Design the sequence.
C-alpha cells in the first residue's frame, strides 16, 4: 500500500481571530491533496473541463490545532472503491513531529458533465486507485 503525501505550509490568511487555522481551510487542504493525488495518477489536468469527478461528500474531524507557519503533511489513501464512486481518507499531521491535526474523508463520484450522470470508474483508474488502498481503515487512521 502506498500513501500519497502533500505538504502544506499554513499561510497567515488561513488563520482566524483565535490564532489557529480556520476550520474551512482544512477542506482546501483536502482539495489540494486530492488534486495532487490525481495528477500523480495521471488523471489530473490543468483544464478543469477535462475533470471527471465531483465531490459527493466531505467531512473533517478536528483533533488538534494548526497555526501560521506550521508545515502540515496530508497523507492520502483510498478506503473504498465502488462501481461509480471512491472514498479518500486523509490524515493531516504536523510534518515535524507527526502530531495528528485532523482526519478527513471525501467521497468522489466519476461523473460525465455532458450527460450530468455518474459513470462507472474506468478500469485503468480503478487499478491506480487500488495502489493507495488501505484495508484496515480504523487502525490506519489511528497510526
Sequence:
Amino acid at each position: 500500500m502506498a500513501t500519497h503525501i502533500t505538504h502544506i505550509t499554513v499561510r497567515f490568511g488561513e488563520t482566524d481571530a483565535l490564532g489557529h487555522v480556520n476550520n474551512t481551510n482544512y477542506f482546501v487542504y483536502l482539495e489540494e491533496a486530492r488534486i495532487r493525488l490525481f495528477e500523480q495518477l495521471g488523471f489530473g489536468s490543468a483544464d478543469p473541463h477535462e475533470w471527471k469527478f465531483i465531490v459527493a461528500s466531505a467531512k473533517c474531524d478536528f483533533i488538534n490545532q494548526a497555526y501560521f507557519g506550521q508545515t502540515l503533511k496530508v497523507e492520502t489513501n483510498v478506503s473504498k472503491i465502488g462501481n461509480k464512486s471512491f472514498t479518500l481518507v486523509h490524515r493531516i499531521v504536523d510534518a515535524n513531529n507527526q502530531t495528528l491535526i485532523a482526519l478527513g474523508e471525501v467521497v468522489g463520484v466519476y461523473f460525465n458533465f455532458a450527460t450530468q450522470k455518474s459513470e462507472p470508474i474506468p478500469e485503468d483508474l480503478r487499478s491506480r486507485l487500488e495502489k493507495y488502498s488501505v484495508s484496515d481503515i480504523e487502525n490506519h487512521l489511528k497510526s
About this structure: Strands lie at 4-9, 53-62, 71-81, 85-94, 100-112, 117-118.
